[in-house]
Amino acid sequence: MPRVLLLPGDGVGPEVTDAARGVLEAVVRRFGVDLDFDEGLIGGASIDACGSPLADDVLERARACRAVLLGAVGGPRWDPLPVDARPEKGLLRIRKELGLFANLRPARVFPALVGASTLRPEVVEGIDLLVVRELTGGIYFGEPRGIALVDGRREARNTMVYDEVEIARIARVAFEAAGRRRRELCHVHKANVLEVSQLWVMVVEEVAKDYPEVRLSHQLVDSMAMLLLRSPRDYDVIVTANLFGDILSDEAAMITGSLGMLPSASLGEGGIGLYEPVHGSAPDIAGRDAANPLAAILSAAMLLEHSLDAPEAARAVREAVAGVLSDGHRTADLVPAGDATPISGCRAMGDHVVAKLEAA
Ligand code: NAD
């Protein structure tokens, strides 16, 4: 039976992970999806228990699972620790050890939250796009790199480098994702200037031959930055290199409004997926049942789609979230200051989603 490792972590992590687990358990009951759970420590909670932000045995248990659902790590309590011993190291280590080279960040505007965006409602209404970012290559990792003294001047250097295997594998992830969605893929690049991007265009075109059902387009990254603000609805899946994806995925995410709504998935060659909300451990509201669990719940929906091959269950979870929002349920982060809308706690919001799912 496929197993999911829950790593709730710190701060609001345990609260939102608990709500997401409740939704996955409802999916097991409602859709007959086979699934069981393991649970472990990561981040500050793990440092407190065993002195390390990610113990070897937790990593081994992750390798034995189909997927990992993570809450968040970190908090002021562990801030005085040296960088190498901090909670975030646990997260970086598990991503690296599991070889997670593909980061998927959907940006979707729920009809009930159209007013929460900084863009005009007629621009944001209906946005449903997915940024697929290459996560383990490109200029963030390329060698040579560093700052040196050359002819008496400080000189800095980074290297953007990709080989065709790295490009082809992320392209496949993006084509597969597009195939499960509206079958449109936009490759974002800077091929008018960069040879690296020219190779991306070539390899993405080659991979496209295996996915004739997906319509492929190419777009320069500078134009894309504008087009995402002008007509974000026009895009389904976007695939791009690490640097461009870092910037565009934040831009796309912000269009949709609250941090408490944004899920993510990181996928790799080992077949294990890591799913986590984009937000951090929110220590300012931790332990008060005030967190928005929807990013974690939507991360669980991504887990159903990408790791458990249960797209219908994933869709049902997303529809349940949309339904709960259109019924008017709101956590505090979704209510503008001074607004009199009644507020649901983290647990109640999770329960609303479960009830919607069970009534569907
Ligand atoms: P944060 O995302 O934790 O919080 C930023 C703001 O958003 C806060 O006001 C918080 O209350 C709010 N917020 C975040 N998630 C929310 C939710 N689910 N519901 C309602 N409101 C929410 O970012 P931060 O304050 O910069 O960082 C706090 C800690 O989290 C730090 O230790 C940081 O290193 C860590 N962090 C972890 C991750 C991760 O685990 N992936 C990501 C970012 C930050």
Give a verbal description of the structure:
The chain is α/β, with parallel strands linked by helices and 360 residues long. It has two domains: 1-108 and 256-360, Isopropylmalate Dehydrogenase (3-Layer(aba) Sandwich); 128-137 and 163-255, Rossmann fold. It is 41% helix and 19% strand. The strands form two sheets. It has a ten-stranded mixed sheet, with helices on both faces. A two-stranded antiparallel sheet has the order 6-7. Helix 6 (164-179) packs across helix 7 and helix 10 (294-306) runs antiparallel to helix 11 (311-326). The longest helix has 19 residues, at 13-31. The radius of gyration is 21 Å and the shape is globular. The mean pLDDT is 94. Residues 12, 16, 72-75, 88, 91, 259-260, 276, 279-285, 291-292, 295, 333 line the site of nicotinamide-adenine-dinucleotide.
Layout of strands and helices, then pairs:
Elements: E1 3-9, H1 13-31, E2 36-39, H2 44-50, H3 56-63, E3 67-72, H4 87-97, E4 100-108, H5 121-124, E5 128-134, E6 146-150, E7 153-157, H6 164-179, E8 184-189, H7 195-208, E9 215-220, H8 221-230, E10 237-240, H9 242-255, E11 263-268, E12 273-277, H10 294-306, H11 311-326, H12 346-359
Parallel strand pairs: 1-2, 1-3, 3-12, 5-10, 8-9, 8-10
Antiparallel strand pairs: 4-5, 4-11, 6-7, 11-12
Helix pairs in contact: 1-10, 1-12, 6-7, 8-9, 10-11, 11-12
The chain binds nicotinamide-adenine-dinucleotide (NAD).
Nicotinamide-adenine-dinucleotide (NAD) is lined by residues 12, 16, 72-75, 88, 91, 259-260, 276, 279-285, 291-292, 295, 333.
